[in-house]
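User: Show me a protein chain along with its predicted structure.
Assistant: Here is one chain, sequence first, then structure tokens.
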Amino acid sequence: MLLGPVHAWGGAVLFIYPTLIMFDGNKRSATITLTNRGDAIGTFETSWTEHEMTPEGGLVKVEGEVPWSVQPYVRYSPRRVTLEPSESQVIKVALRRDQAAPKGEFYSHFKVVTLNSQDLQDEANEEAEPKSDSAVTIRARSAVAIPIIWRNSPDEQRAAIESVVIDRDANQLKIDVRRLGDLSVRGFIHVYGETADGSRGELADAVQLVIYPSVEKRSMAVTLNEGTTAEALASNAEVVFTSDPDVVNEETTLASYPIVP
């Protein structure tokens, strides 16, 4: 799923912030900011779309009604905006809690489509006989979508690292992470161990991992930093899955697993 900024083949350029909205606890309202960072006027239309995750981590669009949709519980406005270059528009999003809603997690994707860009429209109008309507539409349209989630549950996200396998040929770690409970899991994989100077530190860049409720387990590969070989992993090295990309402590740690050289 594309995340902002997104280019509409020149002209209007959409930037969207934030890239995730999570309703849980007492949070009932949020805002989404759309900004035209291009050099032409752009018209943008918002709508809902439904997806489910595949075991490989991809998102597949789902047609029709789905039991996990957040649409019945969330309202937002406006639905369509036209923005000058550098102009922004705030979309107000509100959660309508329903006491009859089942416990669990509801989610949908908030999609923004670039309907037209002024310079592309002007170019099309200069043609006496455009080659096809679809050609103009395809050039002008682009889309960005972000998840909006309501965790209607007192539970916290939970996960377990099931296995860590060293791939010496690729200088990678093959890691299996399982989602526990009914909620999605969103976090970051860290690899810690003894660095070249003898201190304890990160042996790989932190990698984001998301597991939607439609799948139970994700497998991923983490490449070790240059200069750190799989054979050199010390006996106290470990993989840590945290809810924060930078802070690793007892509060943020979701799961950990020792690496066996």
